[in-house]
Amino acid sequence: MSTFPVQPLSPLDGRYRAAVAPLGGFLSEAGLNRARVEVEVEWLIALTDRGLFGTTALSATEKQSLRALYLEFGQAEIDWLAEREAVTRHDVKAVEYLVRDRLTALGLDRIAELTHFACTSEDINSTAYALTVQRAVTQVWLPKLRAVTTRLGEVSVELKDAAMLARTHGQPATPTTMGKELAVFVWRLERVLGQLDGSEFLAKFSGATGTWSAHLSAEPDVDWIEISRAFIEGLGLGFNELTTQIESHDWQVELYDRARHAGGILHNLATDIWTYISLGYFAQIPVAGATGSSTMPHKINPIRFENAEANLEIAGGLFATLASTLVTSRMQRDLTDSTTQRNIGVAFGHSLLALDNLLRGLSEISLARPVLLDDLDGNWEVLAEAIQTVVRAEVTAGRSQISDPYALLKELTRGRRVGAAELAEFVQGLDIGDAAKERLLALTPATYVGLAESLVDRLIRP
Predict the structure, then answer these.
(1) d(CA 340, CA 337)
(2) CA distance 435 to 327
C-alpha cells in the first residue's frame, strides 16, 4: 500500500466534490483562516481609525493593502499558516503571526503591536465562524433550499388537478390530488425558511473571560463595549455582549436545529416520492447512457431520492450533534466546541448534496396520470365516507330515518372492494332525499377530492 496515492477520506471531498464545492470557500479550514485574517485586519483598522494609543488612521492605500491580506488570501497563505501552526500548535496564533509578517512587508510595523490587541482566540474565532457560516448559509445553502422549494411549488401547481388515491396507514383513503400533497411539503418548507431567514449570527469581542479586563488596563477611559459592538455590527453580525470566554453558540444551536428540521421535511418528501415511484404514480425519465442495474437492463433506479434520503440522515445526525454539543461549555471555557465546529461544513455539505439530488430528481420524473386514475377506479369503497356523511346530514334535516349511517356503510365496505355498479345500487336504495341521492350518484373517486385544487391555488405561489 506504500505506493497508493493519498486520497480524500470524505466523499464530500472526493466523489461529490463538484456538488458541494461552493461551501469550501467558507466552511473549509482555509475559509475559516481567511475569515480569521479578515477579523484581525479589520480590528487593526478599527483601532487606528479611532486613533487609540497615539495612532493615526491608515491611508486609503494602506487600508487597501491591508485588506488584500484576506481579499487575496490564497495558496501561499494556506501553506504559510500550515508551516507556522506546526510550530505554534495553535491555529489562531499562527494567523496572528501571519498578519504581523505581512505588516512588516507592507511597512506597517508601527501598528504591529495592535495585532490581536486585547483579544482572546475566541474573539477571533467566534467572529470568523459567524462570518463563514452566515456567508455559506445565505449565499450557498439557503439559495439551494429555496430552489428546491420553488421547483416543488411549480410541480404542485402543475399537478394540482391530478386526482389520486390517498393512502393513510398505507390503505386506500379519501382521494386527494398529487399537487395538493406536494403543496403540503412546500407549505412546511416555507415556514422553516421563514425561521431560517430570521437567523442571528452572533459574535463576541470582550476578551479572555468576557469582561474587557485587558482593554481597561490599557485604556480605562474608552467605551470598549461600544467600540466592540460597532466593530462586530460593522462586519454585518449581531453582537453578544454577555459571554464567558466563548460566545455561547446558542445562535448556532438554533440554526442547526432549523436546518435539521428542514432536512426532516425533505427526507419525508424523498421517501414519499420514492413510494409514489414504486406504485407507478411517477415514471422516471430515462437519462441517456445511464445504467439502472448491472444485471437488469429494464431498471431505472430512483437514485436521486435515495441519495437525498441518506445524505439528509447523515446531515441531520451531524446537525443534532452540533446543536447538542455546542449548547454546553464547562464553566468559562472548554475545547469540545473547537473540534465540533470543524464539522459544520460536513453537515451542510451532506445537506447541500441532498438538495442537489432532490432538485435534479424533481426534473427526472413525470406523473403517470392513467395509473392514478386506474387506482382510483379500483377503489370505489373510498366513497363510503361521502355517503355516510350525506346520510347523516339527511337524518339531521329530517329527510331520512336511517338509524346508524356509519354502521351501514361499515357493513358494506369494510375490508372488501366495492365496484361502481354495486355502490350505485346501494345509493339508489338509500332512504335520503332525491337531491342528495343525485349528488352521490354523480360522485366518483376521481371527483371526490374536495378543495384540493383550490388549496394549491390559495396557498402556493410558484
Answers:
(1) 5
(2) 63
Q: In whole angstroms, what is the distance from residue 268 CA to residue 272 CA?
A: 6
| pLDDT value of residue 408 | 77
**Which one is catalytic: 169, 294, 298, 403?**
169
CB atoms within 10 A of CB 122: 25
pLDDT of residue 294: 45
Q: Active site residue: 90, 278, 293, 366, which one?
A: 293
Summarize pLDDT for 430-443 with one digit per residue, the tens: 889 999 999 999 99
CA distances from 101 to 69, 131, 245, 386, 419 (A): 11, 24, 27, 79, 84
Catalytic annotation on 169?
Answer: yes
CATH number of 380-444: 1.10.40.30
Q: Candidates 1.10.275.10, 1.10.760.10, 3.40.50.360, 3.30.565.10; correct CATH number of 21-119?
A: 1.10.275.10
Q: How far is CA 60 from CA 45, 67, 395, in A?
A: 11, 10, 86
Asked if CATH classification 2.60.120.330 holds for the domain at 122-368, the reply, yes or no, is: no
List the domain boundaries for the chain: 21-119, 122-368, 380-444
Q: What is the pLDDT of residue 462?
A: 62
In SS3 terms, 319-334 reads as HHHHHHHHCCCCCCCC
| Active-site residue, 213 included | no
Confidence at residue 409, expressed as pLDDT on a 0 to 100 scale: 73
Predicted pLDDT of residue 417: 78
Whether the domain at 122-368 and the domain at 380-444 fall into the same CATH topology: no
pTM exceeds 0.85, yes or no: yes
What residues contact residue 95 under an 8 Å CB cut-off, 6+ apart? 33, 36, 37, 40, 81, 124
Q: What is the pLDDT of residue 290?
A: 58
Q: Which residues of the chain have pLDDT under 50?
A: 294, 296-297, 299
